[in-house]
Amino acid sequence: MLKKIDRYIIKKFLGTFFYAITLLAGVIIVFDLSEKIQDLLENKAPVYEIIFSYYLNFLPYFINLFSYLFVFISVIFFTSKLATNTEIIAILSSGVSFRRLLRPYMIAATFLALMSFVLGNFVIPHTNVKMREFKQKYISNLKMDRGQNIHFQISRNNFVYVERYDPRTMSAMKFSLEQFDDEGSLIYKLNSGKAIYDTIDGNWTIKDFYIREIDGLKEVLTKGSEMDTTLALIPKDLILIKEDYEVMDFFEINKFIKDQKMKGAGNVIQYEVEQQKRTAYPFAALILTLIGVSLSSRKVRGGMGMHLGLGIALTFIYILFMQFATVFAVYGGLSPILAAWIPNIVFSFIAFYLVRNAPK
């Protein structure tokens, strides 16, 4: 059962967090609107769509993006104030241990961590869909990466290679299809200058092709100018919308990664990093709360300014750590799990050290 001091700290924690992030959200919306106002006016975007289709869906993304930063700042701000007013000293002098003092902080941080997890995995992907529709209609077209040098598995022993895919004509340039036996030996290979997808019957029209059929030392070569074939391949497999994971919820991104790995696609690293980040980053609220309380519960000569300066510096180091880990995962071969969790692991040791040396 929560005591009065617990309710007081939880109220201060959550109140400071939502007040601070609401103020910043207002400032960000003003700057964002000033940047996009010309496009909105030129495309005659209705006011109600600007408010309800864009900015109302923008708020969950913004809150989640800056949640761990404002968790830390909120803890530093109001705990420093408690320490300056000697309230922390009074609480500890009354027989309450520092670990007991941490309980309301961790309750509030757990609530914010769960909120971040739900927002990142279930709410924001769906609000991003509406934001993207609005941007597509009134601001700018979503950029689309054209597939290049695509090589993946379409079934157990069948592999497809495409040098370049043009989504406008649904044409796969320099298309090849390879089939292997269970022992891994090549038994069939089709090479073609172009393969065109037929949206009506779902077939691929293969242009200027030749086929090698291999049976041990025997090899049969067949050439042709055009043929139709059915493949376990659709144009969606050959294109990638930039940051497409933004509109995938928890279950969709897991399914996408599983399907792409089954096909042997090599473009899933960013999706795996995003998948792990959505689980790892909410834990930052708990870790940064421990660090924030440990730093700001001691009354120092610099007062709140000293605590806030140190807290913000640590937060930006954490953010920098996250960005470096993400880049190393995408381009340097670092495991996505390690990339997402290594900032939390490092800062957990910092939190453990600070809690041990916090005022008792």
C-alpha Rg (nearest Å): 27 Å
Read across the widest sheet, the strand sequence of neighbours is: 2-3-4-5-6-7
- The overall pLDDT average reads 86
Poorly predicted segments: none
Q: What best-fitting shape do the alpha-carbon axes yield?
A: elongated
Give me the strand/helix succession.
Answer: HHHHHEEEEEEEEHHHHH
Structural category: alpha+beta
The biggest beta sheet is recorded as: 6 strands, antiparallel
- DSSP helix count? 10
Termini separation comes to: 23 Å
- Which bin fits the share of residues in helices? 55-70%
The number of distinct β-strands equals: 8
Strand content: 15-25%
Q: Describe the oligomeric state of these chains in a short phrase.
A: single chain
Feature tags:
alpha+beta, 2 domains, six-stranded antiparallel beta sheet, two-stranded antiparallel sheet, 10 helices, 19% strand
Provide a descriptive summary of the structure in words.
- This protein is an alpha+beta fold.
- It folds into 2 domains: 4-140 and 271-356, no CATH class; 145-237, no CATH class.
- Helix content is 59%, strand content 19%.
- The protein is built from 10 helices and 8 strands.
- The strands form 2 sheets. It has a 6-stranded antiparallel sheet.
- Strand 2 and strand 3 (158-166) form a beta hairpin.
- Helix 1 crosses helix 3, helix 1 (4-42) runs parallel beside helix 5 and helix 5 (98-138) crosses helix 8 (283-296).
- The radius of gyration is 27 Å and the shape is elongated.
- It starts with a helix and ends with a helix.
- The mean pLDDT is 86.
List the helices and strands and how they pair.
Blueprint: H1 4-42, H2 47-65, H3 67-84, H4 87-93, H5 98-138, E1 144-145, E2 148-155, E3 158-166, E4 171-180, E5 186-197, E6 204-215, E7 218-229, E8 240-241, H6 250-263, H7 269-280, H8 283-296, H9 303-331, H10 336-356
Antiparallel strand pairs: 1-8, 2-3, 3-4, 4-5, 5-6, 6-7
